[in-house]
Write a structure and sequence with these properties.
Elements (H helix, E strand, L loop, with lengths): L4 E4 L5 H10 L4 E6 L2 H8 L4 E5 L2 H6 L6 H6 L7 E4 L14 H28 L3 E5 L12 H20 L6 E7 L5 H10 L11 H12 L9 E4 L10
Parallel strand pairs: 1-2, 1-4, 2-3, 4-5, 5-6, 6-7
Pfam family, one: adh_short
InterPro entries: NAD(P)-bd_dom_sf, Sc_DH/Rdtase_CS, SDR_fam
Family: Belongs to the short-chain dehydrogenases/reductases (SDR) family.
Length: 239
Amino acid sequence: MTERIAIVTGATGGMGREIVADLARDHHVYALGRNHEALAELGALEKVTPVGADLVGDLLDDDTASSAVRRLLGLTRVDVLVHAAAIARRHSVDSARAGDWRGQYDLNVVVPAELTRLLLPALREADGTVVFLNSGAGRGAYPGNIVYAATKHALHALADGLRKGEANNGVRVTTVAPGPTDTGMLRALHDEAGQEYTPEHYIAPAEVARAIRLVVDADDSAQITGIAVRPRVELADRR
């Protein structure tokens, strides 16, 4: 039996690490990230190959693409591609400048679009699955998260269009949209806003990996097009 291959971007983040560990149970996982210490830890797992990558530079600037990423683009089959890499900075329309918009759009939208394009032949060969890690912000926005929310709205459109465009090519496409999840990104956003951070109020990252596992294990007759993962008690409903 041919070994199944998975690629996970944002692998060194809180959700990414859990996703890699889960997929490695029955895939060889290429774990892409920039945190070298976390990559080394992932590399100690069986069937995980860590790949140091600056995805914006590697994919959007042909002059700086790393040899490791170029080797991935040469894979002949990819069974699962998970786009978990993202950045979030607090911005209103008044505070955001062109560079703020471009920076978040490059990583959150353009990188997943370009990586998917480059890997489509390998995904088609494997009848593979593409998972876009979205957010509750992909369906709503408030003054402090406008740039990030806009990128996640765009990511929904990317996933929906890709799913319809690849329907007859064997590729399944899914959006998994977690609400507030206990990660370093969320903690940093709270710190930036001067807000109290209470980890037990947020989704455990392992639950996001469980949702992706449900998608990956779906029978060949179906595709799960979207999953929303929400806190057990919504933050606005807490008493």
